[in-house]
Structure formats: structure tokens, C-alpha cells
Design a protein that fits this description.
Number of domains: 2
Distance between the termini: 85 Å
Radius of gyration: 27 Å
CATH superfamily of the largest domain: NAD(P)-binding Rossmann-like Domain
GO molecular function: aldehyde dehydrogenase (NAD+) activity
CATH architecture of the largest domain: 3-Layer(aba) Sandwich
Largest sheet: 7 strands, parallel
Structural class: alpha/beta
Shape: elongated
InterPro entries: Epimerase_deHydtase, NAD(P)-bd_dom_sf, NAD(P)-dependent_oxidoreduct
Bound molecules: 2-acetamido-2-deoxy-beta-D-glucopyranose
CATH topology of the largest domain: Rossmann fold
Number of helices: 14
Strand order of the largest sheet: 3-2-1-4-5-7-12
Protein name: NAD-dependent epimerase/dehydratase domain-containing protein
Strand content: 15-25%
Keywords: Membrane, Transmembrane, Transmembrane helix
GO cellular component, one term: cytoplasm
Number of strands: 15
Order of helices and strands: HHHEHEHEEHEEHEEHEEEHHEEHEHEHH
Amino acid sequence: MPHWPVTLLFSLRVINFCNGGLLCFAYVLVVVEAVTGAVFYPIFFFCSIYWPCRSMSNCIKQYQNMVKVLVFGATGAIGKEVARAFSRNGHTVYGLTRSAKKAHELEREEINGVVGDVSDPSTWKHLIKNVSVIIDTSFDYTNPAEKASKLIQEVAEAVKEYPERRFTYIYTSGTWVYGNDAGVTVTESDAVNPIPIVAWRPALEQLVIQSQDFDGVVIRPGMVIGKSGSIFGMLFSAVQKGHITLYNDENTRMASVHTEDLAEMYVAAAEKIYAAKGQIFNVVNSQTENTTDIVKAIIRLVNPESTITYEKPTDPFQTALGLYSPIFDISKAVNLLGFQQRHSGAVDGVERYYKSWKATATEWEDCKN
Ligand SMILES: *[C@@H]1O[C@H](CO)[C@@H](O)[C@H](O)[C@H]1NC(C)=O
Ligand SMILES: *[C@@H]1O[C@H](CO)[C@@H](O)[C@H](O)[C@H]1NC(C)=O
């Protein structure tokens, strides 16, 4: 048996004895070594320098890998801005889209446009080896629950082929999971009570954050405003036509977030995965807004003749539009991800958001003709 294990063990025993003092350890080491012979030094030197360096370089490598991202739903209201935000921050982005034309548009934004289908892994599996962050912003209108959970499983399978690497998966949920809770302030640690349209989401959120296959993060945006505008665009278009139906009564409220402010949070979560993994983040502006006030601001701007009627919701989507949103305490996103609301809320930004939506809608019309 060589000397050095004995030397090391003995020295460790001694630092234990002298309360972990490093000087004491070094002193004992030298004395013991002088007694046990010079053979041990090179080995000890090698171990003490080589192993820490090796584990540190692995660690650095892991974080360097994060600069490559695959975005599912890269041309949707959220995904488009997410892909652009990563690109703007210097990361390499692959954006999956169904049409070759849209893939081409992504290329214009310095995003690698890949033609494929979220629900067909053979169209995107080959990209997994090139990325370390996978983001789902896609939404399947006909079968959202099944499609989203299938995707989580397929990504988990795909990343298993690279057991030596660590992947990040960011899933897009939404604040509708809190349901109707007007006047109550909620945080991520409060229980959810989803409205029917998103009843399936909390289970998927758990699947993502508890996964052993990847570092999972869940982002829950509020109603997305700005640019092409998602549901907000529906309000513009109804008011333009002269009549808008709202649900329940004039006391409904919504939590919103600008698509660019939201997109920055995906980048922050990926860059700070050491803090974000296994976490859920509510990403909304710091104030909720009165839905009727928002619609009245649109009416004043777009079509003062337009009228509003209130109806009882008769389907899950109408229930979602007639939501009495709770108030959000967003300190988690602020403190861990550095969330900042840079853009105006729905009422204050109405003119700017309307103009952007209209320009996008016109482009769409031109393109159809
Ligand atoms: C993936 O990366 C390899 C080299 O790292 C590259 O040759 C290949 O083109 C990349 N694949 C795509 C789809 O960009
Ligand atoms: C929402 O705004 C409408 C007018 O735009 C007002 O009548 C109503 O009282 C407001 N509701 C709340 C809860 O603030």
C-alpha cells in the first residue's frame, strides 16, 4: 500500500482535530509527508489541481451551452418575440414553424427557421443535439392538453439520448390558472383554481418543474398585449366593426403583459437556470386593469360609435374573457429574473398597440390578396 492515502487520511483526521484550520492542515501534511516519503507529493499535487479544474470547466461548459435555443411556436404571438429576444441577446435560435414562408421570415430576424411540426418529433429531433434550451410557446387550439403533454414526453425522450448533457425546458402556461379571485393578491406559492379552459394546465406545470429529465421552468404570462396582440386584437377588431360583447359585468379585470417584456423573462430564465430551475413565474404587469376601462379606451380611439353589451359566458373561452382576475404580487419574477415592466399597460398604451395591430392586420390582408 502506498503512503499517500494513509498520509491524507491522517492529515484529514488532524484538521478535524484542529477545527479545520488550513494552516494546521498544511503543516501536518508537510510533517507527515516528510516522514512517509516524497512519492506522495506529485500525486497529491495532481489531485488537488486537476479535479477542481475539471469540475469547474464542466460547469462553465454547461452554462456556455445555453446560448442555443429551440423555440416551438416560433411565429406565434409569444414565440415570435421570445425567439427575437434570444437572438437580440446574442444566442443562437432555431425556430420551428409549419410554413416555409414563415421560416424565411425568421431568417430575416437572424433566427434559424426550421420547417416542421411540433407534434411530429421526426421534424425537430435532430435539432436537440444542437441546443440546450427548449421552449414551448405553441398552442394547439383543437387539443391543447394532449398536444402539450405529448410534447413534454417527447422532449424528455429526445434529451435522454444525451445523458452527459443537461437541458432546460421552458413551458408556457398562463395566469388563468388562478381563476376568478378578484381583490385577492396571489403569488406563485398560492394554490391554483383554474377556469375550465385551462383546467389541465396545473398538472402539466408540475410535470415540467418536477422532471428528472431536464431543468424545467414554467412561465405564466397574463393576457399578451402589444405587436400583433393575441386576444387583445379581437377587442380592436370588434370595436372597429361597431359592437363588442363583454362577459359577466363591467367589473371584470385582466392581468396583461407586453409581449416584449414577457419575452425577456424567457431569456432571463434560460441564462439564470441555476436559480430558475424547478420554478414557476407569474409574468404580468404590476397592476391588473378593468376590462371595461380597456374597451372604453379602445372605443374612444377607434370607433366612438361602438357599443358594448354584457352577456353571461356560455363557453370556456367566454368565461376566460369574463375573468375577475386576482391581483399579482410579482416579486418572484422581479427578484429572481429581474422582471421590469418597460411597456405601458393596456389603457395607457392603447394608441400605440392599436396602430401596431392595425399595421400587422393590413399586412395580413395584403398578403391574402
Ligand atoms: C448542428 O450543429 C452542427 C455542428 O455543430 C452543424 O454542422 C449543423 O449544421 C447544425 N444543425 C443545424 C440544423 O443547424
Ligand atoms: C370598471 O370600469 C367601469 C367603467 O369603465 C366602471 O363602471 C366600473 O365600476 C369599474 N369596475 C371596477 C371594479 O373598478
